[in-house]
Amino acid sequence: MTDTIRQRREPVQVRSRETVARILQTTAELIETDGADAASTRAIADRAGVSVPSLYRFFADRDEIFDRLMSTQLAELDRHSEETEATWEVASIRDFVSRELDLHVAYYEQHPSFVRLWFGGRISPTVIAEVRRRNRTLARRARSTLVAAGLVEESVSETAFVLLVELGDRVLDLAFRDRRRADRTMIEQGRDALCAYFEGIAVSASARS
User: Fold this and answer.
1) Are 114 and 122 contacting, i.e. CB atoms less than 8 angstroms apart?
2) 109 near 50, Cβ under 8 Å?
3) Fewer CB within 10 A of the terminal residue: the chain, N end or C end?
4) What global pTM score does this model have?
């Protein structure tokens, strides 16, 4: 993640880093159980066992805590995605799309605070920009994987993959709307739509070559 997302005072001492981690964990728990509106700075401080002035030593306000939590979870998701993708032997476009979709569904179900913040729009323009950069990176990895596997022609543009990733994001948004666990029917219908879109792109590129 870039330096644009950072708490007010970067922790140096071990105790300070532990306090920040506890604040973030507490925030995630409050969001998961009671929703983002319940995660006030007072509620976060009380549950984390720190004073409100101590909390403000590290974070300017609640929105900055939300941003930091999203930033941390995005970085974790990215590490997990790269490590998992490196183990795949992709057999088809549908196989790849299915694996990516299932990977994200599993992560989102394990991190409901991420879902509530991201799809609930409780994040800043800075975080939105980070997510978009992350989606473009994911699109580049997808293109590299499918081209290397001989499943997509080199002529297929990066833009087509960016659109695939963004469409996948919308499928996940709909599948998790007002839910802790994904709507499986929506996921399956979204999987079919994403595969149909990209299989059509691949066939068109192959016919032109």
Assistant:
1) no
2) no
3) C
4) 0.85
What domain range includes position 13?
A: 7-60
- Other beta carbons within 10 angstroms of residue 83's beta carbon come to 9
| Rounded-to-integer distance, Cα 108 and Cα 112, Å | 6
Computed over its alpha carbons, how large is the radius of gyration of the chain? 19
Quick one: 159 and 185 in the same domain?
Answer: yes
3-state SS track over 66-79 = HHHHHHHHHHHHHH
Calculate the CA 3 to chain-centre distance.
18
* Per-residue pLDDT at 1: 39
* 3-class secondary structure, 30: helix
Q: DSSP state, 120?
A: T
**DSSP state for residue 196 in the 8-state scheme:** H
Q: Please count the helices (runs of H) and the strands (runs of E) in the chain.
A: 9, 0
Q: Please state, in angstroms and rounded to a whole number, the distance separating the CA atoms of residues 87 and 75.
A: 19
Total domain count, the chain: 2
Give Dmax over CA atoms of the chain in angstroms.
65
Q: Which residues of the chain have pLDDT under 50?
A: 1-7
| Confidence (pLDDT) at 136 | 94
Residue 53 corresponds to which tokens in the numbers above? 């002035």
Q: How far apart are CA 170 and CA 148, in angstroms?
A: 27
